[in-house]
Amino acid sequence: MSQTEGARLFREAWIAGVRKYFPGEPKPGYVTPWEETPEWERQAAGAVYEQVRQLLDLSGGHASRLSREQKSRFVATAWTAQMYRHFEDPKPGYVADWPALPEWQQETDADIFEAIEEDVA
């Protein structure tokens, strides 16, 4: 899968997770369709997709045995690194440590990992 396709899968998994876990009505930016997603966000999504894919590959697929929390933490950490890459001074919410993330976001990040895992299997 190309990085663009991986980025799009990431974005679709994010939107599905937001719709599933977010309490109430999510901010429009949380569910912006791919075609309207900013370029920096597409690049970040593609990079995180690739990092998860590489983790699965380098572990011989055994990273699938990580707990949902570990999967979520991996995605959140990889995303945080991308925020520092794309923004000189990112908003605190963009780089919050995993325990500070709302539960809906933690669950969504785990779902993203599992969507990528399913895609590369």
State the shape.
globular
DSSP helix fraction: 55-70%
The stretches of 5 or more residues where confidence is low (pLDDT under 50) are: none
Strand fraction equals: under 5%
Describe this structure in words.
- The protein is mainly α and 121 residues long.
- It has one domain (3-120).
- Helix content is 63%, strand content 0%.
- The chain is built from four helices and no strands.
- It has helices at 3-21, 39-58, 68-86, 103-120.
- The longest helix has 20 residues, at 39-58.
- It is globular, with a radius of gyration of 13 Å.
- The protein starts with a helix and ends with a helix.
- The model has no long low-confidence stretch (mean pLDDT 96).
Short descriptors:
0% strand; 4 helices; 121 residues; mainly alpha; 63% helix
Detail the topology: elements first, then pairings:
Blueprint (H helix, E strand, L loop, with lengths): L2 H19 L17 H20 L9 H19 L16 H18 L1
Helix pairs in contact: 1-2, 1-4, 2-3, 2-4, 3-4
Write a brief structural summary.
The protein contains 4 helices and no strands. By secondary structure, it is mostly helical.
